[in-house]
UniProtKB/TrEMBL annotation:
<keyword id="KW-0727">SH2 domain</keyword>
<dbReference type="InterPro" id="IPR036860">
    <property type="entry name" value="SH2_dom_sf"/>
</dbReference>
<dbReference type="InterPro" id="IPR008967">
    <property type="entry name" value="p53-like_TF_DNA-bd_sf"/>
</dbReference>
<comment type="similarity">
    <text>Belongs to the transcription factor STAT family.</text>
</comment>
<dbReference type="InterPro" id="IPR000980">
    <property type="entry name" value="SH2"/>
</dbReference>
<feature type="domain" description="SH2">
    <location>
        <begin position="98"/>
        <end position="204"/>
    </location>
</feature>
<dbReference type="Pfam" id="PF00017">
    <property type="entry name" value="SH2"/>
</dbReference>
<dbReference type="Pfam" id="PF21354">
    <property type="entry name" value="STAT_linker"/>
</dbReference>
<dbReference type="InterPro" id="IPR048988">
    <property type="entry name" value="STAT_linker"/>
</dbReference>
<dbReference type="InterPro" id="IPR001217">
    <property type="entry name" value="STAT"/>
</dbReference>
<protein>
    <submittedName>
        <fullName>Signal transducer and activator of transcription 5B</fullName>
    </submittedName>
</protein>
Length: 293
């Protein structure tokens, strides 16, 4: 019944919630839309409020300026730009993880800290970045490497579409051995293993393909020292490879170029030069055959 092209200056927050939920489900091609907690998070962001009761926002109105004209406090983007960035990131790269329930997403940094500190070390969750459009970060709880007995919640620099076009979220989580349990208590392989990229077992067209791995230096276990007689690349020599350290193509030449009086003797280097010249003129096949015989 709305008059065409007539846009109200303000709408009830509950009306906007319906529209945002419809948009989100349509882009995710999923029945899993925005929960009441998700909508409270969005209300806090839209109204710059710390209230957490859904009833507090039920009768509030939001203006077009608040929606997509005025930047969020301390940011250079609007509420709609932030939300639209989340939708784009999710539908391009993270849709299966959302549908699996692996991404909480709409959780701020303080909430993530409160949730994780009550869990064992290695527990992590995925939340949308507050500071970057279309960004998602991993927050996890672990011991402070610099202070024994202290536990902290750490946050990775947010990932964006560009990052996931290089390496997927599941593979990045697999790379980080200090991440053990997806909040609240699910083993990470139970949730993400079906999305891991299978390792390459054979070279392709004669080439070995390199693989990108993600590390967090502060939480990376150093590689153990190789044992005696073992190298990082242990390859078996082919049957045609010689094991001699001296190939003997040229005969041994003395390094002593000084005469008994300590003067430089021109005759010796001239002899060397003549010897090299003679070898260069000799057919290569004859040299090898003489060496082998």
């Amino acid at each position: 019944g709305r008059v065409p092209f007539l846009v109200p200056d303000k709408v009830l927050w509950t009306q906007l919630c319906e529209a945002l939920d419809m948009k989100y489900k349509a882009e995710m091609h999923s029945g899993r839309g925005l929960t009441e907690d998700n909508l409270v998070f969005l209300a806090q962001k839209a109204f710059s409020s710390s209230r957490n009761n859904p009833e507090d926002f039920r009768n509030m109105t939001i203006s077009w300026a608040q929606f997509n004209r005025e930047n969020l406090p301390g940011r250079n983007f609007t509420f709609w730009q932030w939300f639209d960035g989340v939708v784009e990131l999710m539908k391009k790269h993270l849709k299966p993880h959302w549908n699996d329930g692996a991404i909480l997403g709409f959780v701020n940094k303080q909430q993530a800290q409160d949730m994780l500190l009550s869990k064992p070390n290695g527990t992590f969750l995925l939340r949308f970045s507050d500071s970057e459009i279309g960004g998602i970060t991993i927050a996890w709880v672990a011991e402070n490497p610099n202070k024994q007995g202290e536990r902290l919640v750490w946050n990775l620099l947010p990932y964006t579409t560009k990052d996931f076009s290089i390496r997927s979220l599941a593979d990045r989580i697999s790379d980080l051995n200090h991440l053990l349990f997806l909040y609240p208590d699910r083993a990470k392989d139970e949730v993400f293993a079906k999305y891991y990229t299978p390792p390459l077992s054979k070279p392709v067209d004669g080439y070995v393909k390199p693989q990108i791995k993600q590390v967090v230096p502060e939480f990376t276990t150093p590689n153990p020292e190789p044992s005696t007689g073992v190298t990082f690349m242990d390859q078996t020599a082919s049957s045609s490879t010689t094991h001699s350290n001296s190939f003997g193509v040229y005969s041994s030449i003395s390094d002593n170029m000084l005469d008994p009086d300590g003067e430089f003797d021109l005759e010796d280097p001239m002899d060397v030069a003549r010897h090299v010249e003679e070898l260069l003129r000799r057919p290569m096949a004859n040299q090898w055959s003489s060496q082998q015989s």
